[in-house]
Amino acid sequence: MSVAKMNALPAKNWTLIVAGLLLAAGPVGCATPEARPDARLSPLSPRVLALVDANRTYPDWRSFPRSGPTPLSAVDVAAEVADLNAAAGTAAAEVAGITWTLDDPEGFARQVSEAVADVPVSALSLQTRDEIEAFAQGLRDRGRAPPPIPRR
């Protein structure tokens, strides 16, 4: 079979496919849709048209609320600043009433050491850094892929 005949065969097939599609689309394109009843003749249409006409201008920008909070007036800001200053003065007075002296620093350090010693320590917390690193390295080693299987 020659090359020209081999190339002609797909072209002939495509021609037949396109012709078949055009023949099938012809009757479909000429079909008329079913007659629909006129929407203006439905029983609800006067009510729907009246609602549409009444609300034709809605929504208006006046109908939407403003986005974000309304800005405060200068009087409101001054009142809030005065409240904050009064609260700061009260907090400063309370701090001034605290005695901040440490008479026995060694005794305080001893109390802290005793409190820390009374707390039980878990076994994991007693491990050294080297033990933790060895454990982590063991996990990394276990996570490595096995060597490939030889094909021959």
**SS-based class:** mainly alpha
What is the overall silhouette? flat
Helical residue percent? Answer: 55-70%
CA-atom Rg in angstroms = 44 Å
- Give the percentage of residues in beta strands: under 5%
SSE succession: HHHHH
Provide mean pLDDT, rounded.
80
Q: What's the total number of strands?
A: 0
Tell me about the biggest sheet? none
Helices, by number, come to: 5
**Cα-to-Cα separation, first versus last residue:** 45 Å
* Low-pLDDT segments: none
Question: How do you describe this structure in short?
Answer:
This protein is an all-alpha fold. It has helices at residues 3-30, 45-54, 74-96, 105-118, 129-142.
Structural summary, described in words:
With 152 residues, the protein is mainly α. Helices cover 59% and strands 0% of the residues. The chain has five helices and no strands. It is flat and about 105 Å long. The model has no long low-confidence stretch (mean pLDDT 80).
